[in-house]
């Protein structure tokens, strides 16, 4: 009879939407018992723990330290968590964030952050606190991934780029995110505008950040409107700092009366399929990603996509989109214009994108993750 394992999961710093979605997919859709795992101990903060359903094999821990300032959380992760893992009988820890400073062994670490590694991206942050934070984070991530007994990457692109800094990592798994079922069965999509009076609705779903280039997209849509294309642009997602300033400045120039740009701000996750289904074209202008949920979700809805040619995007979208340079408005405008003017192409790439999206399921992601953790533990025994 195979030995039954006890696994620890450190999700203490899962704050971003993608990190939260990954954890929920792992717990909700996985079957760890199929991989000789009899019990999983999960450490996370209370608000997130409360959204995780009860499972017969799951034990949730919500340390008070995780409600405290970041320095207290880090102290707990470094010194308290290893002891708590041992007391719970955990044989291996799964770090859901490569920024972990927990030194419990053996370990499997998941890489979800590319900003510290993407060539040229950190220059945007100057020499201030944000740049220093990213440099420190890169050092911590290098150590966490390099010292782990197993490392999980979301894309081949991320694995290749990060190993240029960590050196070759021996035990690697490529396990992409899944897509929620709400995107695979969205509301009925609106029909393509039948006349020039009805505007073509473009949408970009992503928090406003320096590497997301929303202000460049605004310039591109403005240029297309001047060429006679009746386009509207919906920007979905919050944001702050310098990126918001750049966006506001561009809006004051390109669309001071907000005739064609609508800022929807933060939209609850469960409402995103409705927003996408009410759109005609999806634009994704990020220059730094690991494996973007914001791209695979409109793929599942079946939207024609104009997409950045950077990072893992060509690996994920393949030939099911029209690519552009996200920092050049003319390039974005050309890609969107190509989609707008060619009905046959629109249908072809939207159908291909939807077909490609079928491979991204949380069941696959979760079970491949549990299998890899179990296999890594067996190798270390």
Describe this structure in words.
The chain contains 14 helices and 13 strands. By secondary structure, the chain is α/β, with parallel strands linked by helices. The strands form two sheets. A seven-stranded parallel beta sheet has the order 3-2-1-4-5-6-7, with helices on both faces. Strand 8, helix 7 and strand 9 form a beta-alpha-beta unit.
Compute the number of helices: 14
Class inferred from helices and paired strands: alpha/beta
> In CATH's first tier, which class of the largest domain applies?
Alpha Beta
Biggest sheet strand order reads 3-2-1-4-5-6-7
Helix content, binned percent: 40-55%
For the CA atoms, what is the radius of gyration? 22 Å
CATH superfamily of the largest domain: Glycogen Phosphorylase B
Number of strands: 13
Give the overall form. globular
Strand content: 15-25%
Measure the end-to-end span: 16 Å
Major β-sheet annotation: 7 strands, parallel
Low-pLDDT parts are none
CATH architecture of the largest domain: 3-Layer(aba) Sandwich
pLDDT averaged over residues: 94
Q: What is the N-to-C succession of helices and strands?
A: EHEHEHEEHEHEHEHEHEHEHEHEHHH
What fold name goes in the CATH topology slot of the largest domain? Rossmann fold
